[in-house]
Design goal:
By secondary structure, this protein is of the alpha+beta class. It folds into two domains: 2-101, MutM-like, N-terminal (N-terminal domain of MutM-like DNA repair proteins, Alpha-Beta Barrel), CATH 3.20.190.10; 124-259, Helicase, Ruva Protein, domain 3 (Orthogonal Bundle), CATH 1.10.8. It has helices at residues 2-9, 124-131, 140-145, 155-165, 178-194, 204-207, 209-213, and strands at 14-19, 23-24, 33-39, 42-47, 51-56, 62-66, 77-83, 87-91, 95-100, 237-241, 246-250. The strands form three sheets. The protein has a five-stranded antiparallel beta sheet with strand order 2-1-7-8-6, with no helix packed on it. A four-stranded antiparallel beta sheet has the order 3-4-5-9. The protein binds zinc ion (ZN). Zinc ion binds next to loops.
């Protein structure tokens, strides 16, 4: 999406900027869009040299384009951006955030989003190095969701990856070695890349093509609590973990807790 928006937006002076949080942002009218970039699932629009508009479409978000005088705020409008030539309306986006750019001098390595796992090239070793900047007691489930480490892993891949590497989601970062982290991020990349295409998500067939063909719900553990584990037959469990208490699915047999809290 970023590539399609670049010619439309870059170097264009803003006629209007509206977000559901701020309403009309008058002070940025007349300022120029400097760049449009996609990082993971995030779209970043740099405005002047001072602000960044970040959008995350989530499951239901969509972008509509119209003539500049044909855009208006509806109940589900998330953000509006109007230039001389085009009006862009985002609706139902999960996240819309207008932030001031931080001073360069104050920024730390973790101030920005991590490498995009869906990019053509992705330096997994760099991702692991970023993960090691987190507090050692951080649970793996939080590490994987942290977009500052690697951009792109959502709630589904988090559970699927931890199942496939056989680690309890509550395991502390300090209890696992770099090889396991590398394996986890490389696997997330593989699963995500295989599912970029349209159609139902399938994380099973990517790993075991023969098994994948016979299954209806094509996840190893995600949204399968109470159902038999595809590997050992024991019951898949669900627990809410982490800062946002997001649902996490796992198999206690395939993901033993022996490493948990061994910090
Ligand atoms: Zn199992």
């Amino acid at each position: 999406m970023a590539r399609a928006l670049e010619p439309v937006l870059v170097d264009a002076p803003l006629q209007r900027l509206w977000t559901r949080e701020h309403g009309d942002v008058a002070r940025l009218v007349g300022q120029t869009v400097r760049g449009v970039e996609a990082i993971g699932k995030h779209l970043l629009v740099a405005i002047a040299d001072t602000h960044v508009l970040r959008l995350h479409m989530g499951m239901r978000g969509r972008l509509l384009q119209a003539a500049p005088d044909r855009v208006w705020v509806a109940w589900d409008t998330s953000a509006i951006l109007v230039t001389d030539a085009r009006g862009l309306v985002w609706r139902n986006a999960r996240t819309v955030e207008l932030t001031k750019r931080r001073d360069r001098g104050r920024s730390s390595a973790l101030d920005c989003l991590g490498p995009d796992l869906l990019a053509t090239e992705c330096d997994i070793a760099a991702v692991v190095a970023r993960a090691r900047l987190l507090p050692p007691e951080t649970a793996l489930v939080e590490v994987l969701l942290d977009q500052r480490i690697a951009a792109g892993i959502g709630n589904v891949y988090k559970s699927e990856v931890l199942f496939l590497v056989g680690v309890d989601p509550r395991t502390a970062l300090a209890a696992v070695d770099d090889a396991l982290l590398e394996r986890s991020y490389a696997l997330a990349r593989t699963l995500m890349q295989a599912n970029v295409r349209a159609g139902p998500r399938d994380t099973v067939g990517v790993v075991e093509p023969r098994l994948g063909r016979d299954l209806q719900g094509r996840a190893w553990v995600y949204r399968r609590s109470g159902q038999p584990c595809r590997r050992c037959g024991d019951q898949v469990a669900m627990v809410r973990l982490g800062r946002d208490a997001r649902s996490t699915y796992w198999c206690a047999t395939c993901q033993p807790s022996t490493k948990v809290n061994r910090v």
